[in-house]
Amino acid sequence: MICICGPSAAGKTLFAGLLASALQNADIKAIVIGCDDYYREHWTPDPFFGFDTVEAIDSESLINDLRALRSGELKRLRRYDMGTRAVHWTRLEAEADVVLLEGAFGPQLLLNSCPPDLLIYLEESLAVRALRRLRRDIRERQRTVLSVLKQMFKQMIPGERRFIQPLREEADVVVRHGARDLSEALEPIISLCSSRRAQ
User: Fold this and answer.
1) What distance in Å separates the CA atoms of residue 53 and residue 61, rounded to the nearest whole number?
2) Which residues contact 59 (CB under 8 A, 6 or more apart)?
3) Which residues contact residue 188 at a Cβ distance below 8 angstroms, ignoring those fewer than 6 apart?
4) How many CB atoms lie within 10 A of CB 15?
5) Which of 34, 74, 123, 161 would bridge with 69, disulfide CB 3.0–4.6 Å?
6) Residue 22 lies in a domain
7) What is the chain's mean pLDDT, rounded?
8) How far is Cα 5 from Cα 7, in angstroms, rounded to an integer?
9) How large is the average pLDDT for residues 156-160?
10) How would residue 181 be classed by pLDDT, with cut points 50, 70 and 90?
11) Residues 37-79: tens digit of each pLDDT
């Protein structure tokens, strides 16, 4: 299992997709699991951090699903609707050689109970991330500009300092900002996965 973590809008989903495609080209089947799909259903936001806290994640479901996925027993994938805050499931069609878990909140919960084989931390400037988050939340999560900015400064940034930035010290690989850096980071990871698969 490979964990891809980092602050909000740092490019985690993009990197996970690029890595999954690169692994597929190397004949390694990968499945991407998003920590965002493990938000607690109809959860009341934390009074200080809102949803920008590990407490917002259903840790028991996440860990159980990852263990079931590793053992080939998981039959369905959890999905979380950001608009309705409801959970639903989709069918899991095939097994995978590598699990790619991506998210800001979730990897923290695994370090002791279900540690990843590789922890990758993505970095990006706050300015770039702010623009990305505005575009994403307005388009995909039906948010207003004002509500996104308010959440960023009151909850997102404090939540990152408390829960996400400490993961950088735990990371095996730190990928700094820029699409070029994302692409350059893939090759050694693919090589590592290939060598471990051959063992």
Assistant:
1) 16
2) 38, 106, 109
3) 173
4) 24
5) 74
6) yes
7) 90
8) 7
9) 95
10) low
11) 999 999 999 999 999 999 999 999 999 999 999 888 999 999 9
pLDDT of residue 189: 84
**Residue 105 in domain:** yes
Give the max Cα distance, the chain.
Answer: 52
CATH number of the domain where residue 154 is located? 3.40.50.300
Query: For residue 57, what is the DSSP state?
Result: B
- Which tokens go with 88? 């639903």
Residue 194 · residue 28 · CB < 8 Å:
yes
Q: Is the pLDDT of residue 184 over 80?
A: no
Tell me which residue of 54, 61, 65 sits closest to 31, measured CA to CA.
Answer: 65
CA–CA dist 39, 85 (Å, integer): 8
Residue 8 Cα distances to 76, 98, 146, angstroms: 26, 24, 17
Report which of 96, 157, 166 is spatially closest to residue 127, judged by C-alpha positions.
Answer: 157
The closest alpha carbon to 21, from 30, 12, 34, belongs to: 30
At 179, the pLDDT band (50, 70, 90 cuts) reads low
Domain that holds residue 123: 2-194
DSSP summary character for residue 40: P
Q: What is the pTM of this model?
A: 0.90
Q: Is residue 199 part of a domain?
A: no
Total structural domains within the chain: 1
Phi, psi of 17 (to 5 degrees): -65, -45
